[in-house]
Request: fold
Amino acid sequence: AQLVESGGGLVQPGGSLRLSCTASEVTFRTSVLNWVRQRPDLSLTWISSTDPDGTDTFLANSVKGRFTVSRNNRDNTLYLQMNSLRPDDSGLYYCAAGRIRYCRGDHCPGVDSWGRGTQVTVSS
Reply:
């Protein structure tokens, strides 16, 4: 599965970014799509999971009320809208396909494929 992320950058605390994940049509329509953040120490944190038909999205408690997920079915693109960003939101954000059960250390069991990631840096 091909997954391509974009939209990262440098933003001040309190600012916003929108990340995009473009997938192949088959992947977009049949896979659970996730956002996962990686810190410099390579630890992974699960951020969100969206069902293949887009009806259900689950968000980590740390981002609820600040991040939202949406889809453009015509372009096979998943978006992560990130508002009220904080320095601890910084990291390399990956789009990942598969049913993630959990993330621990540098491992997220259940991921079938990963994108290359897009860097988010929140700093003044």
Q: What stands out?
A: Helices lie at 25-30. The chain is about 5% helix and 50% strand. The two ends are 36 Å apart (CA to CA).
